[in-house]
Structure formats: structure tokens, C-alpha cells
Amino acid sequence: MSQVIDSTQFLSDPIFGIVSKVSASTGVRAFVIGGFVRDCFLGRKNDDIDIVVEGSGTAFAKEVADYIDKVYYPSEGVSSRKPTKVSVFENFGTAMLHFRGMEIEFVGARKESYHRESRKPIVESGTLEDDQKRRDFTINAMAFSLCPEDFGALVDPFGGIADLAKGIIRTPLDPEVTFSDDPLRMFRAARFATKLSNDEFSFTVVPECLQAMRDMADRISILSKERIVEELCKILQQDKPSIGLRILDETSLLEKVLPQVTRLKGVETVEGRGHKDNFSHTLQVVDYLAQSEKEAIAQGLLKDYFPTEDGGASAGVVRTAPNVWLRWAGLLHDIGKPVCKRFDPAAGWTFHGHEVVGSRMVPKVFKDLKMPQNEKLKYVEKLVGLHHRPVALVDDQVTDSAVRRLIFDAGDDLDDLMLLCNADLTSKNPAKVRRLRHNFDLVKEKLKDVEERDAIRNWKNPITGDYIMQVYGIEPCNTIGKIKETIKEAILDGKIGYSFEEADALMREVAKEYGLVPVG
Fold first, then answer.
1. Comparing C-alpha atoms, which of 39, 51, 41, 35 is closest to residue 5?
2. Domain limits of the chain?
């Protein structure tokens, strides 16, 4: 079903005219399809352009590159440039080139069939209609014709434009067929509902798709963990991740990939006293964390640090995009609560030590999902383990030493830790929230005061192992580590200042206790 529409505002970029001219010269029908078309109607910028042709996508891409080099750029008066590079991906039957900052991908129209035990399709050449049938959702199956005879016509056989207006996620074919062919589409349904929703307009997954997702949840066993995590990360990076997480929970998909999170669901009552639903609380925290991080990024308040060759950290670069690992820390921050839940007749429900237990659970989550086993894991472990520490600093009797130790333990991740802690301050009682946030502001002032005075965040021991070996003429040994640890503890406790001179004096006192004598 083609509709002639005024697409001038959408197809004014030269690349579409170029593709149309190549279509005319080769006799190959070409269309722009998918996310670019969808985002045109949503008023969203999208520089990733998918071109589907009824023929060979790679051959057509090379024709487009030749046209760009031989006709387009010479007409623009540009001669001193490298030829347009076409990257061919034989395994996927696609080709890609870059043009004026945009990424253009070409693929031949195809029809697919699947074996039940695999998500790798058997691919045959097909028509545009065949290609649209294999798309995941109606809103991603729309195409604009780039053929000269009907340039700009909307090809929308499944009513994607109407579904956009209604704000619904729906499959072109029977959802059981679409999801059985590629179960990853169930996660994509949750992701698109999250990505496309905003404060003014929400997208929902239609009931028949939700039911199919419930019925076919076991099909995700054929998916790689890496692909599942990729979709989870894309959900977490949105402005309101709870939308997608709730969809995954309602369809039993979340339980299959993150049981540690779904175990937070439910409220238990003893003697008329219940605790809050920690699953709903977690989703609130992730949403508030996303909002807070977005605001901090807009104000240029956050930095990302990278390890240097000497084992330290870089001066930091201003963060410009969401840190998905901060969002993971928010999602996992309370996973230790089911293990630590206790009822005390005097105090009510308690979850003492859940941050420590939760931190110890993080490596298994990462391992089960085949997530990075590097500094990203350590970062999430650290934030989960520390997320209750700042709350304890509200007490006026808290010493500078306690503040200093938190700054030291958090290091370059202190700002992210404070975002997580602030997001964790939720309650159905507005007065309680105001009191908690007031107290939290006092904590931030304490941290700022101590950090400005002591520069602990970028702390390095003034005394190095090499220096100790040089002064005492000894080889590497455990004693060196013990001396350095004593100096570190003395500085954090405020017993000595953060200076080489005071640290050196303490080193010499401690070294005597170990029977060390300076050489020379």
C-alpha cells in the first residue's frame, strides 16, 4: 500500500537524490526503510539510513559510491578527496558507506525462514513486500520510495503510520511467528516502548504481543547472552528505563535473565507491619538516577576517568552520554535485600548489610550474563557496596576521618555514588523525602569541605615502595606494604597531614619497629 505524501522535508538530503539517480540508471528499485522513516514522523533526528533494494545491496552500494565520486563531488567542486569507501559484510549480505556524516547501509530485499532451534535465518532474495514482512514491528516496516517514478511515496502495508499515531508497538505478522523467528524481538519491543515514550506521549506494546511474549519466554534460550545484554543496556540508557523493565517483568522475561532483581518483588507483613516493595523501589531509583544523570550531564558536572600507565587515573573528560554502568548499579543496588531481610519486633523490617551482600552478588550476575569482567564490574561492585555509606554521614558527630575514608574508597566514582545515593532516597511520605534530601545536602557539604581541604579523592600515598627500598636498601617484601598501609591509615585518620614530609617522618618511625636502618 503506497501513499503519495509530501516528503520533501524528509528526503531533502543529497543522498536520497543520488540513490534515486542510481535507481534510474540501473533499473533497480530502491527504498529508505525502518528507523529513519519512523523518526521522520516523530520529529527525531536519525543519521543511520537503511536502504533496501530489489536486487544486490552490495552491488547497488558500489554504484552509489561511484556516482558520489564521479558526479556528485565534481559538481560540488570538490576534487581532492579520497574515494568513497564501501564496507561489505558478506555474512549479512549488506554494505555500508559514509556520506556527509551519515551512515548509509544497503541491503537487498529478502525473505527469511527459520529453524526453531536457531535465530539465524535461511535467506532468499525477495521483493520490498517480502522484506517488510520480516521486519520486527509495523512502525519499523514503513518505507519511502526512492524510485524516480514515485519518489517519496510512503509504502506502509501494515499501518505503521496509524500505529505511530496511536503509540503502539505491534508486529507486522502474527506475533508468535515474529517472535518465534527471532526471540530477540521481544526485548526490542520493550526497548522501543521505552525509547519512543516521553513525558507527553507514551508507547505501549499491544496485548496480543504481550501475551505472545509470555507464551514464548522460553524461546530466549536460543539467544546469546551478549545480544540480550545489548538490549538491556539500550533500555537502561533511556530517560525512563522502568517502562521497558516493567514490560520485561510482566512477560516473565526479566525473571529469566535477572532473577536477582525480580526476587525483590512483593511485600511481607508481620504483626501488621510491612516493608516497601523493593522491586518498585528499584525501578523508581533507576528512573530518578537516569533523570539526575541527564541533568548533571547537561550542566557539565560529571567526568569520566580512565586508567593511566602508572596505575593512576586521567584528569577526566566531561561526560556527554549516559554511563550505562551507573544505571546497572542502580538496577542491582538492592539485590542483597532478600537475603538480609529480617523482622525485629522493636525495629520492624531490617535489611542490615544488604549493600555488602549485594556487592558480592554482582560478579555472579555479570558472569551469568557474560558481561565484562573488568573495571566495569569493579565499578558496579563498588557503587552497590558503598551506596549506604553517605547516609551514615548525616550524624553531626561523624568525624572528618569517616568522611575522608568515604572519599578515599569512592575515589573518582564519588560523584556517581552520590547520584545513586540521592536516587535511593524514595518514600511515599513527601515529608520524609524532604527531610532525607535536606540531610543529604548536608552530607554533600561535609564531603565538599573535607575534599577541598585534604584532596583525598585523587589520593596517592606520598611514600612509594621504590622510595622505601631506596632508603633502606631492601628488596620487595611484605614489610614495605605494611609501612605504606600504616601511612595511609594515619593520613585518613587525620593523625598526620597529607604531605611527603610528615609521611616520611612516620615511615622512619615505623621502619625502626621492623628493624630497618637507613643506608648511606
1. 41
2. 2-165, 168-257, 264-454, 465-513
Give the count of beta carbons closer than 10 Å to the beta carbon of residue 481: 12
- 292-325 pLDDT, tens digit per residue, is 999 999 999 999 987 766 555 567 899 999 999 9
When mean pLDDT is compared over 16-25, 345-354, 391-400, the highest value belongs to 16-25
Indicate the pTM of the whole model. Answer: 0.89
CATH 3.40.50.300 assigned to domain 2-165? The reply is no
Give the tens place of pLDDT for each residue, 246-259: 999 999 999 999 99
Q: What does DSSP assign to residue 72?
A: I
On whether the CB atoms of residues 219 and 257 are closer than 8 A, the answer is no
Domains 2-165 and 168-257 share a fold: no
Q: 168-257: which CATH topology?
A: Hydrophobic Seed Protein (1.10.110)
Measured distance CA(327)–CA(380) in Å, rounded: 9
Alpha carbons within 13 A on the beta-carbon side of 349: 18
Q: What is the pLDDT of residue 162?
A: 96
Alpha-carbon distance of 295 to 493, in angstroms, equals 35
- CA dihedral 408→414→420→421, nearest 10 degrees, is 50
